[in-house]
Amino acid sequence: MTHTEQAPSPTDETSTTPGPLDSEESGATTPTADGEAPKKKRRRRRRRSKSGGGGEDGPADAQGEADGGEDVDHDAEPVVFAPAAEPAPGAKTSDIFSTQDFASLGLRNSVLKGVAACGFSSPTKIQADLIPAVLSNRDVLGQAKTGSGKTAAFGLPLFHMATRELAFQTIIMVPTRELAVQVANEMADLGKFTPIRVSAVMGGESIRGQARELERGPEIIVATPGRLIDMLDRGLMHLNNVKFVVLDEVDRMLDIGFRDDIRRILSRIRSEHRTIFVSATISEEIERLARSFMRDPVKIVAHAGSLTVSLVEQRYLPVQPWDKRRLLLHLLTHEEPALTIVFCRTKRGVDDVAEHLHRHGIDVQAIHGDMRQGKRNQVMKMMHAGSLSVLVASDLAARGIDVEGITHVINYDLPEDPEVYVHRIGRTARAGRHGIAWSFVTPEQGPLLTAVEKLANIEIPRLEYPDFEPSPPREGRDGGRGRGGPRPQSDAPAEPPKPPARTLAAAPPKPAAAVDASRFPGGLVPTKLPPRTLGGRVKTSRSARSAPKPEE
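User: That's the sequence. What structure does it adopt?
Assistant: Structure tokens below.
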């Protein structure tokens, strides 16, 4: 773990200089001479609602109106956290938690109350290291295992340092629409005892509804880059007040697909601001690029040894390409996992596998980038509601999606990028829970499995599954030879080569008949001219027919 600088820990906020949330605008009261605070007139408060992703009603305001909140001193009483659950005897314990407590991190009580309300008892390692670094006004590049609470790690200090009624002061950018909704909802839960408002801005939803939310001037915006640029170009929001910029899943955000959009957005920010970039995997190239957008950042690596969480039981299953569907169906019907995500490499593969499982009676849904946003939202709601047993997904769902109760992750197609493997299996064993990750490995994918083990710094053992009987290859079977594999060899003796087919030599051309020159005046014999052309076409004896039209 690397951490170069920590912020001071002002545990007693009443003895320190008041922050933005303690000003008169925030509704703080001044004690009278006898020690009692004067009674204040209660103002009407609008109902709060979490950011839900838009539609015609727009992404609902996560915190309520800033000027309509009750004047309550949230720091008046201490915050009590629930005790951490004791692990069962002999059970494997999580390696993501810190020995510190939230009260020692220097956060104000209104923020700590949100933490306690979310059921957190102690901070994770990334939270214990990243929060003081942000509070000390540093740019931060953070790396931690999947499921270790990176959203709270950057979100809690943002609420602590936020200025009330300063619109668009924090911009959080994420790679997918589903992750935008999730991060906005989680931020709303963490900050529900503060007057700071959160709104989600992402594609696939009504611009009109999101524009209404932006008119209210929320302090924190969670956005996908494309829709954020659209809103800026339309003049529906500005970046004049930006104090913090966060890139969640920074390795994906600075990939080729998003890089130009990120540069375009960051170049528009003229105000003095801090940057927070976090992810589970950060390569040397991504780190070098990230530092070009930062000012003297502190790097925090909050994982020891393996990039994957120790509570994930990882196994690989050797399988022939033509047996992958049979093996998947066998595992789902015999193991009966509570909630499983099956990852495929391509969108077409997602649809094919989901259709195959559906034909065999499995309660399954598919999700990938080519689906309508309404359908994607419906699938995610089904997952959160627990009304779905199997989700077949592309790598759209590999990053950041936090759904409680995912017990199994199956890599139907082993990813070509080892970093994607880390993000995929991070969908299970989140926040100290246990999980299982199985990977199908075909014979030619041995080097790819080795690359995954090298990146994750872990040896993945083989899972022996004697109940499954592999089937032999059969000519004509879909994928029977594997991709680029050799043709099956027959045990029968090879037949002798047949002689080449007999061909008939073309008949020699007949000699031209002699022409009697005496029939022509002067002895000039005319030569044969080519056929006469009409309209650019050669006149033939065949009837004219229209050519067939190409398929559209």
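The first strand starts at residue 140 and ends at 143.
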